[in-house]
Amino acid sequence: MGGESTFRLDGETALITGGGTGLGFGMAQAMAAAGARVVLVGRRRPELERAAAAIGVAASWVARDIAELERAGALVGEAEASAGAPVSILVNNAGIHLKKPAAETTPAEFQSVLTTHVCAAQALTAAVLPGMLDRGYGNILFTASMTSFMGVPLIIAYSAAKSAYVGMVRSLAVEVSGRGVRVNAIAPGWIDSPMLRQALEQDEARRNKILGRTPMARFGEPADVGNAAVFLCSPAAKFITGVVLPVDGGASIGF
Q1: Residues of the chain under the 70 pLDDT cut
Q2: For the chain, which terminal residue's Cβ has fewer other Cβ atoms within 10 angstroms, N or C?
Q3: In this predicted structure, what is the pLDDT of residue 255?
Q4: CA–CA distance, 119 with 216 (Å, rounded to integer)
């Protein structure tokens, strides 16, 4: 296989958690444009409906809370029924944020962040893996973070969750890659979005700090993350597994 087809996802079915908004939606758009069927998973039905309508006939959706760990298998079953095909790509993208001093972060709050990011990702991975291993083919992709590499204050739970993804990727890749299932992660830098614009609107100093440590001196776009996701799950990356790919304009290595 070569040429443009090497970078396509024709015949793939991608389950994308948190697929209705933000980076998840950006990845869903890019994967659908590359030929994949995408199933968007999230808690809010109106957002999923809008996102699926924007993508078109290649998209369907399942409204579920991935923190209901015991229902992971049922969720995958619903996704496969809606797509009419087995899940060949799982994107563990959904998460929640908590900005709070470490001394004020309660055990329940810490556990809630870990449940959504780490435990739900593990449960969904365990649900899709048997089918992927039986077929001898599949891709599992995690959305990591700059906090997987660097210390950022006031987000100890989020940092713990995103750092855990690095270990999960490496362990899973070593365990299943020999049987045809590749496991990778993307670590987005600061990507332009309504949430980022709102966060920086009244904080020029923080905006300047971010751009000052980003060698490319600008924010990324959701499509930058989407295109990286397509690449990592495409035949073009068939000898790549166990990596955490920064898509950050150089922020993780900038000074």
Answers
A1: 1-4
A2: C
A3: 79
A4: 35
Q: What is the spatial distance between Cα 249 and Cα 187, in angstroms, rounded to a whole number? A: 11
> pTM for the complete prediction?
0.95
Does the annotation count 158 as an active-site position?
A: yes
Give the closest residue to 188 by CA, choosing from 119, 95, 67. Answer: 95
Query: Which domains are seen in the chain, by residue range?
Result: 3-192+222-246 (3.40.50.720)
pLDDT of res. 195: 73
Q: Catalytic: which of 158, 165, 190, 219?
A: 158
Per-residue HEC secondary structure of the chain comes to CCHHHHHCCCCCEEEEECCCCHHHHHHHHHHHHCCCEEEEEECCHHHHHHHHHHHCCCEEEEECCCCCHHHHHHHHHHHHHHHCCCCCEEEECCCCCCCECHHHCCHHHHHHHHHHHHHHHHHHHHHHHHHHHHHCCEEEEEECCHHHCCCCCCEHHHHHHHHHHHHHHHHHHHHHHHHCEEEEEEEECCECCHHHHHHHCCCHHHHHHHHHCCCCCCCECHHHHHHHHHHHHCHHHCCCCCCEEEECCCCCCCC
Q: What is the pLDDT of residue 3?
A: 59
